[in-house]
Amino acid sequence: MTQIFTVHPDNPQPRMMKQVVEILASGGLVAVPTDSGYALVARLDDRDAADALRKSRGLDQRHHLTLICRDLSEISHFAKVDNTQYRMLKHATPGPWTFILPASREVPKRLSHPSRKTIGIRVPPHPVTQALLYEVGQALVSTTLIVPGDDKPLVSAEEIESRMGHALAAIVDCGNCAWEPTTVIDLSSNEPIVVRQGRGNLADIGLA
Questions:
Q1: What's the confidence (pLDDT) of residue 159?
Q2: What is the pLDDT of residues 5-14, one digit of tens each?
Q3: What residue segments make up the domains of the chain, in order of their start?
Q4: In this structure, are residues 182 and 96 in contact, taking their beta carbons and an 8 Å threshold?
Q5: pLDDT (tens digit, 9 = 90+) per residue, 182-196?
Q6: Whole-prediction pTM value?
Q7: What superfamily does domain 3-196 belong to in CATH?
């Protein structure tokens, strides 16, 4: 049975966050709100997490999973970042951006793109996501919560429980979650490539 934790959107209750951490530690998938809609998350060190996330979304091995990180320093732990990229990331985080970067050795092979050895990275500013990340004490592996066959994500805990509850251990509910996707930028080659234009304003990070 899926557990629903109703938390304050700006100051989530620490007791509930600790309970969610325990569920993640036991291998459960959790739906959490972010600044760009709900995401499915699991522990980075869970060996079955990548397969479970991909199965829940109907994704293949070539789909980029994303590590959601607490801050810029955590990004540099999981991705190879040069000085130019670091300056861009410093301006962009936290914010509505997902960056595709060369994965460091700290990223398990089961999580990175099988041929390109890249990983999606982002630092969401949502208070609930940040509270969970700091309670866990490490990055979480994630993917946008979209039901297989749909083209838009679910935005309420009730919808998520109804349609995805069978695959989830818990849902963190702080009210309906507005959805507008992040801007995705591939920094794994010589020049930045905008893969998807979303909420992020390219001028803010010097790409307009």
A1: 92
A2: 999 999 999 9
A3: 3-196
A4: yes
A5: 999 999 988 999 999
A6: 0.91
A7: DHBP synthase (3.90.870.10)
